[in-house]
Write a structure and sequence with these properties.
With 300 residues, the protein is mainly β. It has one helix and 24 strands.
């Protein structure tokens, strides 16, 4: 099924150099996303269209809702993970994941059903195998779950929580892992989706209640809806830009898809050809997304 242009609305917000990490914040009734290279966090009120911008002190690539505190976000950045205060606009790092950050930064991530943070890291120039995927639990204790990845992206769980879906973008594969909900142990199961080379690279992902994985296609100019069992492409949402970076279901009913895009790696000629690059878009959906979870790591 092909979506039409009337179903895609551009959000009236500043363009991002590298838009990422869209999310729905139920406590604030707002949608959020970040501009990694622009050192900014954006908050978007769906009811009135008001957009607020927060300044970041370093590259923030990941934000998550915090359980019990609507003025804080858990954030992944260059330097580690911690919290971002929406009142003071301050980033406070809590864990450096026991790694060197001179040439690395956090990338994509998500929160599991127990409130643990899963976060990937990448080299700033995306050197092959230079990143890892961590599960952060308890008192911000980090455990490597997948090692030597290049651009860890797109993470979501099935409705029964027994399967974790994750992609290392350059492989063009979305892998399915058997997930032990209680322990957080994961075991590779299968390649759930193989994105054709002609289509582009899988970036951020989100899952709906029907079991479709919605995948932002970097270099592909759209968002694909793939059957998580067969891997077949069932839906396509065309975007007026080439680099589509991530997507998340937002709104009280989780029935709209917020899609981020980027200007990164584009020439002046390409930017002139695709002037909406870096914009954020909202898509009316006929299906709702799976509920996400608040981060429950201890915060002083």
């Amino acid at each position: 099924m092909m979506f039409n242009e009337k179903q895609v609305k551009k959000v009236d917000a500043p363009a991002c150099k590298l838009g990422e990490s869209p999310m729905w914040h139920s406590g604030r009734n707002s949608a959020f996303w970040v501009d990694i290279l622009g050192n900014a966090i954006f908050e978007y009120k769906l009811d009135d269209g008001v957009v607020k911008q927060y300044a970041g002190s370093r590259m923030i690539s990941l934000i998550c809702q915090v359980d019990g505190n609507d003025n804080l976000l858990v954030a992944g950045a260059q330097g580690g993970i911690g919290t971002y205060n929406l009142e003071s606009h301050e980033l406070s790092l809590i864990s450096d994941l026991d790694r060197d950050w001179d040439n690395h930064r956090c990338n994509d991530g998500a929160v599991d059903c127990f409130g643990n943070l899963w976060v990937g890291t990448t080299h700033v120039d995306h050197e092959p195998g230079a990143g890892d995927l961590y599960r952060v639990s308890g008192s911000w204790h980090a455990t490597k779950k997948i090692e030597q990845v290049s651009i860890p992206n797109g993470m979501c769980w099935s409705a029964d929580r027994k399967t974790l879906f994750h992609t290392d973008s350059p492989t063009r594969e979305i892998k399915a892992y058997q997930n032990d909900v209680a322990t957080g142990e994961i075991t590779f199961d299968r390649i759930a989706v193989q994105v054709p080379a002609s289509m582009g690279f899988p970036d951020g992902i989100s899952m709906d209640t029907a079991g479709t994985i919605w995948v932002a296609i970097w270099g592909g100019g759209g968002v694909g809806g793939f059957n998580s069992v067969t891997g077949e492409l069932a839906y396509w949402i065309p975007m007026p830009v080439p680099h589509v970076s991530s997507c998340a279901f937002v709104g009280p009913a989780l029935d709209r898809l917020l899609v981020t895009t980027a200007q990164k790696e584009m020439s002046d000629e390409q930017l002139a050809q695709y002037p909406d690059s870096g914009s954020t878009f909202l898509v009316e959906m006929a299906v709702s997304g799976l509920p996400t979870h608040d981060c429950q790591l201890p915060i002083a």
